[in-house]
Amino acid sequence: MSESLIIPNWDVPSTVRAVSTTRMGGVGDTPWNTFNLGSHVGDNLDVVKRNRDRLIEVAKLPAPPFWLNQIHSDRVINTVASSTNLPDADASFSREAGSVCVVMTADCLPVLFCNRQGTQVAAAHAGWRGLCDGVLENTLATFDDDPSDIITWIGPAIGPQAFEVGSEVRAAFISHQEVAAQCFTARGEKYLADLPRLAELRLKRAGVDAIYQSQRCTFSEAEYFFSYRRDGQTGRMASLVWLEK
Questions:
Q1: CA 207 to the chain's CA centroid
Q2: Deepest in the core among 16, 129, 138, 221, taking most CB within 10 A?
Q3: Is there a contact between 219 and 19 (Cβ–Cβ < 8 Å)?
């Protein structure tokens, strides 16, 4: 397709389409260079619109994406039923062909979902708070299918060698799932957390077997990805999934 897009490495029905963007292939100046899709990060809004229009073109989207006002919550929205243009939520789902679910990230996890029948898709933004509070489980609950019939893809996010957190984050995850302790490595008074692995554990506990990982680190791959932890003020990538019309 384009150097600006990653095609998820998951085995899904032919009705399902998905892409994840990089920081490459758009327009924009430092520190948002070049393919910033976030309108809330201080970038010129005209430039953001140009990048969003370009996204529609290069990804061959059937419609503009259903953008969210992400608030690190566990709230999931139906793209078709929502009456709000920019709802406060961190995940969306759709059973309607042509309705594009999207989440933006710059270190947090983008997690895409579909069922094996190819009749529903969903996208979740999972920072550590949303992940700990159950945004993935709430997204799974929107499917009528058994979790074993759900396919998931965990996209580019901050890797386990870069994501430093406090002991309170470790304790929060362990309070939900004791095995989460294996995802934390002590470093001085802090811990390095394996966010993709934590998501995998939560999905497996919920009954999901088909879990695909991009294994890309936003923090270390500065040429390809925006990273809030690395750069502070920076742009946002998008991960999108939809049903073909």
A1: 20
A2: 16
A3: no
Residues 6+ apart with CB under 8 A from 184: 165, 170, 173, 191, 192, 193, 194
Domain regions of the chain by residue span: 5-158+209-243
How is residue 230 written in tokens?
A: 């690395």
pLDDT, average across residues 53-68: 96
Angstrom distance (rounded) from CA 176 to CA 34: 39
Place of tokens 């953001």: 48
Q: In what order do the strands lie in the sheet with 210-213?
A: 76-78, 91-94, 121-126, 109-115, 150-154, 210-213
Q: What is the mean pLDDT of residues 48-66?
A: 97
Q: Does domain 5-158+209-243 have CATH number 3.40.50.1360?
A: no
Neighbours of 213 (CB within 10 A): 17
Q: What is the pTM of this model?
A: 0.96
CA distance 224 to 238: 13
pLDDT tens sequence across 208-241: 999 999 999 999 999 999 999 999 999 999 999 9
